[in-house]
Design brief:
252 residues, alpha+beta, 7-stranded antiparallel β-sheet, binds calcium ion
Length: 252
């Protein structure tokens, strides 16, 4: 009987080894194995818009200014870079959609946008810029009106053709007059940009392609991660039992 049990143990042991080998052989992912990205793979992204913006990177929505118009704020987020990196920003000045003016149609407001990423990407006159809403036309504040151009549906797409667009114009810090949060974040080397008319152009789209990391640092590309089994396996094990909702039932 004892010999029989030992024999069974050997069979089970050998089976376990075989299963282990098979599991090891199945581990590599099709198309090569990558490690899971860490926070150390991310870079910071700092943006300041006078007055509001939304940011797309490689066709995906990455950040939306959390404050519609005022107070002026900095939006700082972590991003996982992948190159070439297509950046598309829609920025808006605080302006009434019917008059192009702000503060109950008493003022022609001015605008401005600046961005810096931790890889050295900065806004400057190399970016493309186009206005899609301008007003008050001819600076006529007595009879203010706005001229709108339809914004192309795929303005944020990687392959969008902006070859006919003009480049952005750089503005000085004095011209834009950023408020305090701007000075609490790193924007060194970045320039404020807008179209040629920082007062009347109220809805503007910027586009820029970063072909490779400006700081020259070699970074893994995690953009295809969802199609690979990362190093260490893809799952987190079986799902944990969840506590019942609402707690224990009360007696009626
Ligand atoms: Ca304006
Ligand atoms: Ca403004």
């Amino acid at each position: 009987m004892q010999r029989f049990i030992c024999g069974l143990c050997l069979v089970v042991f050998a089976s376990a080894i075989t299963v282990g080998i098979v599991a090891q052989e199945r581990k590599p992912a099709p198309g090569g194995q990558v490690r899971k990205p860490q926070m150390s793979d991310t870079i910071s992204a700092n943006m300041y818009a006078d007055n509001w913006f939304m940011l797309y990177i490689n066709g995906e929505l990455v950040a939306v200014d959390s404050i519609r118009f005022i107070p002026h704020n900095v939006v700082a987020v972590d991003i996982l870079p992948s190159y070439p990196m297509t950046i598309a920003v829609m920025a808006k000045d605080n302006a009434d959609p019917n008059t192009g003016m702000e503060y109950a149609n008493t003022n022609i407001g001015d605008a401005g946008f600046i961005l810096k990423f931790g890889d050295g990407t900065v806004t400057n006159a190399k970016w493309k810029a186009r206005s899609f809403s301008t007003g008050p036309v001819m600076r006529d504040t007595k009879n203010p009106r706005v001229e709108n151009t339809p914004i192309p549906e795929n303005w944020f797409a990687i392959g969008f053709d902006d070859s006919e667009w003009k480049t952005a114009k750089e503005y000085t810090e004095e011209q834009v007059d950023p408020k305090q949060p701007f000075f609490e974040h790193d924007f060194r080397g970045a320039r404020f940009i807008w179209t040629d008319d920082i007062e009347l152009d109220n809805t503007v789209v910027f586009r820029h392609v970063v072909p490779s990391p400006p700081d020259g640092k070699n970074r893994p590309d995690f953009s295809d991660l969802n199609n690979q089994v990362p190093d260490g396996g893809g799952g987190g094990g079986p799902p944990r039992p969840r506590p019942p909702r609402g707690g224990p039932k009360k007696p009626r």
